[in-house]
Write a structure and sequence with these properties.
heterodimer, A: about 400 residues, mainly alpha, 3 domains, globular, B: about 80 residues, Non-ribosomal Peptide Synthetase Peptidyl Carrier Protein, Chain A, about 0% strand
């Protein structure tokens, strides 16, 4: 993708000097399609076709009664699920990080979430009058297409690409930060961690733990770096894209970590999965089901989050572990806190040592769980066995 | 109309008794979500409590920071909903 980034930056002066404001969105859409076509010739027809189908479904939904809207929604979501599954399973190999391959068509995991969001909003009647040119420009928008952030349609279409003072400079600076994170930090952490993760039988527990720390940091720098590049490139072309990471690895618990890790994904999951599932169970089950509803919704949401990253049992386990961690923080620890001595709770919440310990515990819990991101279940269990000297 | 003082007491009691939130310093405009006092699970429980208490349905779309980030925002939201 680096040549595409360089090409886009070289064309930016022409865009600002030669394209009238009212045509900029269309020119960006066309440029994005051409760029994606250079990368993979199959992408433009797929994206054009999907945009047209999506537009037709939104229009049909707006003109339909609620039962028909639901049929359209379910049909659309099943179609997107099929596309997502095919893209993950039919690819040449596993690719988790944004800088890795392994998919049939790059960007489809993000595309599917964006398309599902507008289908759901259309079904709810909250999308308003969507224009095809806005939809197409949003779907194919080059900066966010390959690896997010998962920009919301409403946020995108409300913007006019005008040259706000300093925005281009800030965008270039952000791209530079992103390149440093991805090409230097993530790369060298990978160089160091990969031999440990691929041959753990030769290492002791201390090195195995450091290997997981290194992979977790690599995971972060790679994703966050790509997000920086996307946000920066969008700014160079006059768009403000939603933020995706906010120092998630220095947070006091898993809830805070997940509120700041891949934020556009967690917002999507909260809005379209966690809220509907939890509230449906609560309404049907009554007050006595409240806690159970939250546990079920949290586990469902994070399991889906795991499966979105990869279709395998290791990702299911990773997702369930995240869900259990969130339930621990959000329900169990809250309840326990009420039964502990107040001075102890206050010390944990307010002292510097309590602060540092909680950050360290959270990072360690998250880092250890990432073994299920990099390894199949049996390999991950063997790694953990050696790590804890079992 | 929602009596803001009475409502403040009720919500604080719920936050403390059900969610285990330390409510000593919470005022009407204290930010509940953006400061991390409430997470997604707590906000959903609070919404369920409000639905039962005020006999109304709060759409998923409305469970956002704009409406739930402080007791005064929740109060304004409920006033708008109950008055409409």
């Amino acid at each position: 993708m680096l040549p595409l980034l360089l090409g886009a930056l070289l064309l930016a002066p022409l865009y600002w000097l030669g394209v009238p404001v009212r045509f900029r969105r269309d020119v960006l859409a066309l440029g994005s399609l051409v760029a994606l076509g250079i990368y993979d010739v199959r992408l433009p027809p797929v994206l054009l076709g999907l945009s047209l189908l999506l537009f037709a479904a939104i229009r049909r939904s707006a003109a339909s009664a609620i039962p028909r809207r639901r049929i359209l929604l379910v049909s659309g979501l099943l179609g997107l699920l099929a596309l997502f599954t095919w893209n993950k399973l039919a690819g040449p190999g596993v690719g988790l990080l944004p800088s890795q391959g392994g998919l049939v068509l790059v960007g489809v995991s993000y595309l599917v979430l964006k398309a599902a969001a507008v289908l759901i909003e259309a079904s709810r009647g909250s999308l308003g009058n969507a224009q095809l040119r806005d939809l197409l420009a949003w779907i194919v928008f080059l900066p966010t297409y390959p690896s997010g952030p998962i920009e919301e349609f409403e946020h995108f279409r409300g913007q006019a690409p005008t040259a706000a003072a300093g925005r281009v400079g800030i965008g270039l600076e952000r791209i530079l930060f992103g390149l440093v994170k991805t090409l230097i930090f993530a790369h060298y952490l990978g160089v160091w961690a990969d031999p440990i993760l691929s041959a753990p039988e030769t290492q002791g527990p201390g090195v195995l733990l450091l290997g997981l720390y290194a992979f977790t940091l690599r995971f972060y720098f790679d994703f966050a770096g790509y997000s920086d590049i996307a946000i920066g490139l969008a700014a160079v072309f006059g768009y403000e894209i939603q933020e995706n990471f906010d120092n998630p690895l220095v947070r006091r618990n898993l809830v805070q970590l997940w509120q700041r890790w891949h934020m556009t994904l967690t917002r999507w999951l909260r809005r379209y999965l966690f809220l509907p599932v939890s509230r449906t169970i609560m309404r049907r089950g009554g007050e006595r089901m409240d806690t159970l509803a939250l546990v079920a919704a949290q586990l469902t949401t994070m399991t889906v989050c795991g499966l979105w990253h990869g279709l395998g049992w290791n990702f299911v386990i990773w997702g369930v572990l995240q869900g259990l961690g969130l339930v621990w923080v959000g329900i169990v620890a809250r309840a326990l806190g009420r039964h502990l001595p107040t001075p102890l709770v206050s010390w944990w919440r307010e002292s510097r040592l309590g602060h540092a310990l909680s950050i360290a515990l959270t990072f360690n819990a998250f880092a250890v769980s990432t073994i299920f991101v990099v390894s199949e279940v049996d390999e991950a269990l063997a790694y953990l066995g050696r790590l804890f000297a079992l | 109309m929602v009596d803001i003082e009475q409502f403040h007491r009720e919500v604080c009691a719920f936050l403390h008794d059900t969610l285990g939130v330390q409510v000593g310093d919470i005022g009407p405009d204290t930010e509940l979500i953006t400061t991390g006092l409430l997470d997604s699970m707590s906000v959903v429980r609070l919404a369920a409590y409000l639905e039962r208490r005020f006999q109304l349905v709060i759409p998923d779309l409305d469970i956002e920071v704009d409406h739930f980030n402080s007791i005064s925002k929740i109060s304004s939201y409920l006033e708008a909903r109950l008055g409409s």
